[in-house]
Amino acid sequence: MAYSNRFIMFLIVLFAAVGTGFFSYAGQDLERLDPWAFDSPRRPGAVFSHDDHIFLLDDDCSVCHHVYENGELIPDESSEDLYCSDCHSLKPMPDNPMPLEAAYHNLCRDCHFDRGEGPVLCGECHVKE
Amino acid sequence: MNSFIAFIMGPMVWISVIIFLGGLIFKLVGILGAVRQKEPYIYSYVTLKHSLRSIGAWLIPFFPRSARLSPVYYGISYLFHILLFLVPLFLASHIVLINEAFQISWPALNDSVADVLTLGVIAALIFFAVRRIRVPEVKYLTGAMDYLLILVVLLPFLTGFLAYHQWVAYQWITVIHILSGELMLIIIPFSRFSHMLNAPLTRAYMGSEFGHVRQARDW
Amino acid sequence: MQTKENAMTDTPSAVEKPTDPAIESGLERLTPERIRQVIQQVLKKETGPRFKAYVETCMRCGLCADACSYFLSNDRDPQFMPAAKVKNTVWQMLKKDGNVSRDFLRRAVRISHLECNACKRCAMYCPFGIDIAYMMLLVRRICHKLEITPQYIQDTVNSHSVTLNQMWVKDDEWIDTLQWQEEDARDEFEDLQIPLDKVGADIMYSVIAPEPKFQAGLIYQAATMMHAAGMDWTMPSSPGWDNSNMAMYTGDNEISGRIARKFFETAAKLRVKRIVMGECGHAFRSVYDMGNRWNSWVMPPFEVVHALAFYHELLTQGRITIKEKYKKKVTLHDPCNVSRGRGLHDKAREVVNLVCKDFVEMTPNREHNYCCGAGGGVINCGPPYKGERMVNNRVKAEQLAATGAEVLIAPCHNCHSGLEDIIQHYDLKMEIKFLGDLIYETMEKKIYEPEA
C-alpha cells in the first residue's frame, strides 16, 4: 500500500514536473523551470533540483505545493495536481493576493533564508543560459 | 552566508536608507538652524522666485555660459547625474525587490538598455578620473579624497554590471554590490556627496543675491 | 596628489616678487599663537553655515578656472584659478587649524589682495554658486586682523579712519575744490551753482575722494549736467561726502561700517530724497550692497542711483539733449560692481547708443565681462604691484584690442585707472573716457525747460 501510494505520487510529480516544464539541466539532477506562464520573462527560469527538495523536505510536498483557502494555509493538503499559475495569477487579484513571480520568489528565498541554506541572490537561481 | 546576506539585504538596507535620509534631513535642519542663529541676514535676501530662477537656469542643458565653455565635461556630468538616479531606481531587479517588500512597483528599464546605461555611468566615472589626471587646473585641486569618491560610486555600478552578467564569482560580486551601494548611501551626508543638498542651497542664495539685490543674471 | 607642502613650494615666484614693507614688518611682529588665534576667531566666530557649505560643497571640478582673468592671463596657470586661491589659503588654514607659517601668510596676502579682484565672476561659473570672492575677503579680514595688509591700501583705510575720506582731503580743501569747479563752470553757465548743504534737496550728489584730489574736472562735468538738467541737488560740505570705502576691501569691517554709516547720516541730515553718485563701482557697492548690511539695513536706507542709471534718466526724459552724437568708434567696459553688481549694463548701452554713433561690443560682455584687474582694492595696493597687475590682465588687453575701437568707455574709477594702465602697457592706441566725459562733450549746453 505504502509502496503503491509512493508510486502514484511519483507519477503525479512526474506529470506535474513535465506540465510545469521541468527539464533536465546540464545532465545533472539540476532542472530549469520553464517560465511559460509568464508573458515575457526578463530572466531565464530558475534552476533547481526537485529531487533534492523532496529529500530535504522529507517528502512533504505540501511545503511547496501548498493549498490556501481564503488566505489561510490548509494544513496537510497539497496541490501537486495544479500548476502554480492556476492559483497565482500574474497580477494580484482579489482571490489571489500573491502574484506568480512573488509566489516563487517568496517561497524559495524565504525558505532558503529561514533554513540558512540554498541560493538567495537573484543570479544564483536565475543562472544565465 | 545566508544569514549575512539576509542582514545586508534586510536590516542593513534600512540602516543605510535611514542614515542617508536622516543624515540629509539632520543636515538640512542644522543648516537652517545655524543660518537663523549665525547668519539670519540670509533669510532677508533669499527669495523663492530668484532661487528657482537660478536653479532652473542651471538645470537647462548648456544654458549657463560656464557649461558652454566646457561642453564635454558639462554634458557628461549632466548625463551622469541623471543616470546616477535613473539606472538604480528603474532597474528591474531593484523594482522586484522593492515590490516584494512594499507591494509597490513602477515601470522598469529594459535590461539591455539598463546594461548600456550602466556602462555609461562607468565610462563617465572613468572620464572624471582621467580628467583629474590630465587637466592641469583640475589636477591642481585634486586630492586622494576625490579619487576615493569616484571609487565609491564606481563600485556599486561596476559590481552591478558584473553581477548582471554572472561572469565570475557571482555571489561575492553581488555581496560587494549590495554593500557598496549601502556604503554610498551612508556616506552621502558625511562627504562632499552632500552637495546633493548643499548645492541647491548655495545656488539659491547666490541666485537670490544676483536676482534680488544685484538684479543681474548668474548663469 | 598635491600635498600641502607641494602647494606651498610650487609657488616659488611669490618669494621673488617685490616685498611690501607693511606686510614684512607686520609678519615680523606675528607669533604662532596670534596667527592661530586670529585665524580661528575669523573662520569660526565670524562665519557661519554659508562658509561651511562653500568649503564642504566644492567638488574640485575646476569650472571656475575659465571665469578668472588672472588664470586666463597667466596661460592657464592653475594656481591662479579661483578654487586654487581658496585651496592655498582657506583650506590650508582650516586643515591646520590656524597653525600656518609666515611664508604661508605672505602668500595669502598676495593671493587675496593682489590675485583676486573680488569681482564675483567665478560665482557665475561655479554650478553651485560658491562665492569665492567672499572667501578671499575673509582672508583679507584675517590679514587685517594680523596687521599685514599691503601698505598703500592700508594708508587709504587710515585716511578713511581719520578724515572719513579716502585721500586725506582736508575739510577746507574739499570746499575749496567745489568752489573752484563752480567758478570754472560759470564760464559755460553763468549762474551755475554747486549747492552746499541744501537741506531738503531732491538729490545728494556724492563722489569719491580721488575726484577732488586729482580729477576735479569730473565734478565740473557733473555740476554742468545737474545744472543743465535743472535738478534740485546738493553736495555735503562736511565729512560724509566721500562714498568710497577701501576698508570694505581690506576686511576692516568696523571702519567700513563707520564710513557707510556717516555717509547715510549725511544724506539723512540733508533730508534728500535720493543719493546720486559718480562713476565709481566699488563706492556704489559699498553703499548699495555692503555698508547698509553692516549697519543693519537689508537694503540701503536711501535710493542710491549710480551715474549710469542717472544719465539714463536724464537722457531718456529729455532733461539733457545731445547736440551731435560722438563720432569715434567706442566700446564699453562693464564694471563688475554695476553690471554683475546691479544689472545696469543694459541702461549703459542705451545711454552709449544715445550719445555715440558707432558702438561696438567687446566680448564677453555684460555680466560676463572680464574684470579690469584693478578693482576690489587691487590697484589700491599701489605702484609696487603695477607690473604684475599688467601681466595678470593680458586677457583684458586682448579683449580690448579685438574690438578695434578708438575710445574705451569705462564708467568706474577703478576700471578707468586700471584700464588706462592696460592701454598704455599693451600700447593699445585707445583713448579712455568716462561716460560722463562723452555726455559732457556732446550735450547741448542749455538749461532744461519743462514743456508747459
Written account of the structure:
The complex is a heterotrimer of chains A (129), B (219) and C (452). Chain A has a single domain, classed as Cytochrome C3, CATH 3.90.10.10. Chain A contains five helices and five strands. Chain A has helices spanning 2-20, 50-56, 84-87, 100-115, 122-125, and strands at residues 23-25, 30-32, 47-48, 68-69, 72-73. Chain A is globular and about 35 Å long. The termini of chain A are far apart. In chain A, 12% of the residues are buried. Residues 13-27 of chain A have low confidence and may be disordered. Chain B has a single domain (2-210), classed as Fumarate Reductase Cytochrome B subunit (Up-down Bundle). Chain B has helices spanning 2-9, 11-38, 41-45, 48-59, 65-69, 71-89, 92-102, 111-134, 136-141, 144-165, 170-187, 195-213. Chain C has 22 helices and eight strands. Chain C has three domains: 13-149, Orthogonal Bundle (Fumarate Reductase Iron-sulfur Protein, Chain B, domain 2), CATH 1.10.1060; 154-314, no CATH class; 323-442, Rossmann fold (3-Layer(aba) Sandwich), CATH 3.40.50. In chain C, the strands form two sheets. A four-stranded parallel sheet of chain C has the order 2-1-3-4. Chain C has a four-stranded parallel sheet with strand order 6-5-7-8, sandwiched between helices. Chain C is of the alpha/beta class.
Q: What is shown here, in short?
A:
Chain B is mostly helical. Chain B has helices at residues 2-9, 11-38, 41-45, 48-59, 65-69, 71-89, 92-102, 111-134, 136-141, 144-165, 170-187, 195-213. Chain C starts with a helix and ends in a 10-residue tail after the last helix.
| Tertiary shape of chain B | globular
Structure annotation, total helices of chain B: 12
Task: Give the radius of gyration of chain B.
Answer: 20 Å
By DSSP, the count of extended strands of chain C is 8
From N to C, what is the helix and strand string of chain B? HHHHHHHHHHHH
> Might you state the CATH topology name of chain B?
Fumarate Reductase Cytochrome B subunit
Q: How far is the N terminus from the C terminus of chain C?
A: 76 Å
* Number of structurally distinct domains of chain C: 3
CATH class of chain B: Mainly Alpha
**Which sheet architecture does the biggest sheet of chain C show?**
4 strands, parallel
Question: How much helix, percentage-wise, in residues of chain C?
Answer: 40-55%
